[in-house]
From TrEMBL:
Naturally occurring in which organism (per UniProt): Pigmentiphaga soli
Record bears the keyword Lyase: no
Keywords: Dioxygenase, Oxidoreductase
UniProt GO molecular function: dioxygenase activity
Protein name (Swiss-Prot/TrEMBL): Aromatic-ring-hydroxylating dioxygenase subunit beta
Length: 171
């Protein structure tokens, strides 16, 4: 395991952790547009479909969304006729074990690892669906004023190679 990189240029593990907790809260509160605004314009979200998957472009992923796909997914989540989300899923995420792994001296960007748990409750009839997702987040963050923007986010589910009911929400 890599030792945490000391704070450089005023960036601390605590500041990064506060950003990741805020990001998780936006998803929990279904503020998807605000969450998407945390990405740089060329940013993307990736959830690999298998452990060790090297690229989202060479094989199928659980989710691989650039900005255009994020906008489409969010639009579908907001549409009143998306019956798989009527009523809407409720989710809570916990983010912990935040560590700054790398720092790019040229750009100031940092790569961060953290652990997450996400509980999803879909209040469907005749029986609600409840499920737990857990794994590791990896973020590449670009300093932006007093905060950060996400260059990319990768959600590595511990059980990514399992079969799943349809996935509507970001992990």
């Amino acid at each position: 395991m890599n030792a945490p990189i000391p704070a450089v240029a005023g960036v601390s593990d605590r500041e990064v952790e506060a950003f990741l907790v805020r990001e998780a809260r936006l998803l929990d509160d279904r503020k998807f547009e605000e969450w998407m605004a945390l990405f740089v314009p060329e940013g993307y979200y990736w959830a690999p479909a298998r452990i060790g998957q090297a690229s989202p472009r060479d094989e199928v992923s659980l989710i691989f969304d650039d900005r255009e796909f994020m906008q489409n997914r969010i639009r579908r989540l907001r549409h009143p006729k998306v019956y798989g989300q009527q009523p809407a899923s409720r989710a809570v995420r916990q983010v912990s074990n935040v560590v700054i792994d790398e720092r790019d001296a040229a750009t100031g960007e940092i790569e961060v690892r953290s652990v997450f748990f996400m509980f999803e409750h879909r209040p469907m009839l005749p029986a609600p669906l409840q499920r737990v997702f857990a794994g590791e987040y990896r973020h590449r963050l670009r300093p932006d004023g007093e905060s950060f923007r996400m260059v990319w986010k990768k959600a590595l589910l511990a059980n990514c190679d399992s079969s799943f009911e349809p996935i509507f929400l970001y992990f």
